[in-house]
Amino acid sequence: MEGKETDYVICTRCGRHRAHSEVGIRKLRDAFDLHVAAPPIPPGVCWTCIREDPALNSALGAWLTRYSGKLVRPIREAIARPLEIIDDFVAHFQ
Question: Which residue in 35, 47, 49, 62 has the most C-beta neighbors within 10 A?
Fold first, then answer.
């Protein structure tokens, strides 16, 4: 298995938790099409250390605020459409 790149590594700050490697972050960005505005997740740092680091936590919070619409809006729309159809169907029989 030598030389094989993995998605996860042990956190370089705390040494306890699993963190995304550069390969893992690249896959995450590919999966969500976030190349232009990728979240500020440094490779090798776990989520616990990101939350505990004031600079990383505020950068991630600012990114989430800016791009939550791009990430959340499609999910909300996918949920709302079927509910609207059901509401229209029920209203038809009232």
Answer: 49
